[in-house]
Amino acid sequence: MEIELVQCPERKPNKIFEGRYWGDLGFIHLCFDVIDMATLKNQAAAAGFPFTIDSADSFSMGQAAGRFAYLEDPDGTYIELVETHKVPILKKIGWFPDLTKRKVQKPLPNWMIGCMAWSKVK
Question: Measured between alpha carbons, how far is 74 from 51 in angstroms, rounded to an integer?
């Protein structure tokens, strides 16, 4: 999958979410899975796009955990970044690998992603 981001510097930004609340109907954002959030935070700030929200540590969502952050594009659209720390691979046997110890250069192996399908809710 490929996403192309286009910037038009001569155009005045249209803050489409100004005055709205998180969770309002139609409130849309993009989300990306990232590795090495600390480095990304520094790079984004240096480029003039500091995180507007940062969980800083691992947040727990029951069987999954991770770090999340948000930043805004010039139009005010929120971009969510999630660094996964724990994900249920095989819930029935209690296999929840600690992903904070994986090498940042390596994505999750395809077999591990495939195992997650066994636990999905229909």
Answer: 13
- Which residues make Cβ contacts (< 8 Å) with residue 16, sequence separation at least 6? 75, 76, 77
Q: Measure CA 71 to chain center.
A: 11
User: How far, in whole angstroms, is CA 115 from its chain's centroid?
Assistant: 21
Does position 23 have pLDDT exceeding 90, yes or no? no
For Cα atoms 44, 42, 103, give the angle at the middle one, nearest 5 degrees. 105
CA 8 to chain centroid, in Å, comes to: 25
* Pairing, β 78-86 against β 65-72: antiparallel
User: Between the CA atoms of 35, 87, 69 and 71, what dihedral angle is there, to the nearest 10 degrees?
Assistant: 70
Task: Read off the pLDDT of residues 59-113 as tens digits, 9 standing for 90 and up.
Answer: 776 777 788 898 887 777 788 898 887 776 766 676 677 777 776 666 767 777 7
Q: What is the DSSP letter of 46?
A: H
Query: Please, which residues have CB within 8 angstroms of residue 105's CB and are 6 or more apart in sequence?
Result: none
pTM above 0.90, yes or no: no
